[in-house]
Amino acid sequence: MSELTLHGYWRSGAAYRVRIALALKGIAYAQVTHDLRTGAQKSGDFRAIAPQGLVPALSHDGRIFTQSPAILEWIEERWPTPPLLPAGVDDRAIVRAMAALIGCDIHPLNNLRVLQAIKGDLGADADQVSGWIGRWIGDGFAALERQVTLHGRGFCHGEAPGLADCYLIPQLYSAERFGVDLAPYPALRAVGDRAGSLPSFQQAHPSAQPDAP
Predict the structure, then answer these.
(1) pLDDT tens column, 157-195
(2) What is the pTM of this model?
(3) What is the pLDDT of residues 24-47, one digit of tens each?
(4) What domains lie within the chain, and their CATH numbers?
(5) d(CA 206, CA 213)
(6) Cα 134 from Cα 144, distance rounded (Å)
(7) Which one of 74, 82, 157, 188 counts the least CB within 10 Å of its CB?
(8) Alpha-carbon Rg for the chain in angstroms
(9) Is 78 exposed, middle or buried (0-12, 13-18, 19+ CB in 10 A)?
């Protein structure tokens, strides 16, 4: 197999979800890090790899893949075992909806670019930024809590970790980092606790990355 190289950043939630997927499937990869705090992702060298200037990007066999949802689907199709998606078409739609709830409706509103914009362009102070973060995480987690309560049996959907967990665990990390109260979400916290006991999730954790301080 040609070597995979993941371009990322230790605290990037999107890169984190790709690391989880690779770890769950036991796929080896190299890492190249780009410090988002210093704007390394905006450099000409990185934009030659990922024109949008965002992490993650994944290189394989001379090709570059960007956008974590597409990368995760590519990983699942190329290495289907163990699966990240359930067998049934209805269940796959449910799992993809859970993933999209985080990937489309929570994470983008709280990523570095948006937080910098509301602080720099709109003059939001620290309390306003915290309120912004808590609002979108809280709204999304309230809905996801109901879905996981209905469909989860240890993980977001069923008894084994999958695609939705690749999205949830980084968002739980982000919520804790920003001081969001997770008490109203016992089902999500239970998934986080169970995932945290598994070597695959431990390997993918931000603190375990080569560029972590």
Answers:
(1) 999 999 999 999 999 999 999 999 999 999 999 999 999
(2) 0.96
(3) 999 999 999 999 999 999 999 999
(4) 4-82 (3.40.30.10), 89-200 (1.20.1050.10)
(5) 10
(6) 15
(7) 82
(8) 17
(9) exposed
